Amino acid sequence: MTILLITKISFLIFSSIPLNKLYIEKHNTQYNVASADTLKNPKDHPNDIIFIGVDKRPEYIGGQKEMYKFISEYINEAVATKKGKVNLRFVIEKDGSIGDVEILRSLCPTCDEEAKRVIKLMPKWKPGQVNYRNARCYYHMPIVFK
Hints:
Blueprint: E1 4-7, H1 8-13, E2 22-27, E3 30-35, E4 50-51, H2 64-74, E5 84-92, E6 98-105, H3 109-121, E7 128-130, E8 133-135, E9 137-145
Antiparallel strand pairs: 1-3, 2-3, 2-4, 5-6, 5-9, 7-8
């Protein structure tokens, strides 16, 4: 199995392996990246690997309309001190729960915390799959404050 160590910024530039065939494992500030084609046996990788490209993407139960309906119902825009967008990244676990919510682009501390709070309130999703098995994977989402 080929493993490359790269930084967060250079990961976006790295393109020799197709994006839907990569997985990543976080180690401090670096990532291990390898081809998912080498993962024939699910015992080949530990449970802490977070995939960035999966065979079947995770889905919010009810679809995107229901997801945005949930966010609009639970978001408290009164705490927003600015108008704009907060970009988040979170992990959809193997069981569909939400974990490791991170802010990729901040708007203001109160907006960031409100966006994180609402994401953590979400019910379980249909998890992503690699080789027909549920897998942990990242999901990116913007939340707009008006």
